[in-house]
Amino acid sequence: MASGTRAQYKLATYQTKEGPRAGLIIGDDVFDAAKATGQAAYATIAGILADWKSAEGALRKATASAAKSRAKRQPLAKTKLLAPLPSPPTIFCAGANYADHAAAMARKAGQPEPADPHEQGQKPYFFIKAARTLADPGATIKVGGYAEQLDWEIELAAVIGRPAKNVPIEKALNYVAGYTAANDLSARDRGRRPGVEATSFFKMDWIKHKSFDGSCPLGPWIVPASDIKDPQQLGLKLWVNGALRQDSNTNKMLFTLAEQIAHLSENMTLHPGDLILTGTPAGTGAGSGEFLKSGDVIKIWIEGIGAFTNKIL
């Protein structure tokens, strides 16, 4: 985390009697972001991100004063957190972006270990998950009967804070508003279209493989980018029923987040609220042949961000 005397906060979406609201988490308390800043548009995370250039300063100012004021607050421990960004415009997901994971998947397919894509002149590789696939931190994800090979994939997720088009690598991180944690749940046995030859160009079914209800748990909150010193130096861990399955660091990415943003922005404009899931390291079920089953509990943790759990049914 960044050092200094700045007031620290996290952004969340939490459940209230009036419905979901954007929250400002300060220490162990949650404040209504719109009320704390006096900005009605900040009632949602989308509203905050749409005005991120001004919002960041307003949130810091509110944080500095809210903790010492009589502003209404509620304990974080008694607050129901929702996916921090309930309706992202687009969820971009980097595929095969950790060297060890790419090697494990190649071995599984009986292929040689892939070379560094930079040496081959390759660019980052992406697919898209539907925004409606998000799941809340702590939620029970009901996927019973959908897949027999349901897999886990911990990923650092970047939240875009301002429009980005043709962004150079050296300036790419300036377009990130914050970071959160994601689990790119994958139905491995639904990724191939039945009845289509394995050699066919049309064999893959990315929708059934990646975009089913609950397939993108997200949370528990968004940490401002200015509080993350280097997104390429973050530890990440994933446990299934208490057993550590993934244990790595974002420094093992093949393509950095900056490279990913630069590449995506070449052919389209990235918009505030867009999510970029940056890839997953080795340790997935596909590598071991062990997959999730009903009753399993998954916990993910990313350094500088936090942790959350989900149960599978």
Q: What do these coordinates show?
A:
This protein is an alpha+beta fold. It folds into two domains: 10-82, no CATH class; 91-312, Fumarylacetoacetate hydrolase, domain 2. It is 18% helix and 29% strand. It has seven helices and 19 strands. The strands form four sheets. Strands 7-6-17-11-12-14-8 form a seven-stranded mixed sheet. A five-stranded antiparallel sheet has the order 4-3-2-1-5. Strands 9-19-18-15-16 form a five-stranded mixed sheet, with no helix packed on it. It is globular, with a radius of gyration of 19 Å. The protein starts with 9 loop residues before the first strand and ends with a strand. The model has no long low-confidence stretch (mean pLDDT 95).
**Cα-atom radius of gyration:** 19 Å
Mind telling me the CATH class of the largest domain?
Alpha Beta
Number of helices: 7
**Stretches with pLDDT under 50, minimum 5 residues:** none
What's the end-to-end separation, in Å? Answer: 36 Å
Order of strands across the main sheet? 7-6-17-11-12-14-8
General form: globular
Architecture of the largest domain in CATH? Answer: Alpha-Beta Complex
Give me the strand/helix succession.
EEEHHHEEEHEEEEEEEHEEEHEHEE
Q: How many domains, as an integer?
A: 2
The CATH homology group name of the largest domain: Fumarylacetoacetase-like, C-terminal domain
Question: Which properties best describe this structure?
Answer:
313 residues; 2 domains; 18% helix; 29% strand
